[in-house]
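Hi P.,

Sorry for the delay on this. The queue was packed all week, but I finally got your sequence through. Input first:
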Amino acid sequence: MLIRRCCNAVLKMEEFEGSVEISVTLVNNKQIRELNSIYRNKDRVTDVLSFPMGENGKYDTDPTTGAKILGDIVISMETAIEQAERFGHTLQREVGYLTAHSMLHLLGYDHEDNGLQRIRMREKEEKVMTQLGLPSSSSYVLQDDN
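Then the structure:
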């Protein structure tokens, strides 16, 4: 239910019209590492992968339902648990955040250049988390013990 609520909150925030299809798969670290290696040539574990099906706001439509096919989200639950502990928040907050982050990717957002889009994505992710009652309890910056 949490994942569905996060997806719907992002769609509402982005004023996305109509029904959509999104596949969400929960995996372990071994599985997400394999997918990351195959599809991104990065042989390492990651927390979430997004596989958008649309481009420039254009999406295929499922002929039987009329829903726009946005793409696939893959979340490593092992990494989500580790990150929730590391950042001092709940697993629900972490899974919600990863879902919102991935949904924004499915809608065309990117953060690879570390610039304005990265900041914009973070603001949108936090807005959704706050709307769902899962506000940030940390800065995502780990403190050194020095």
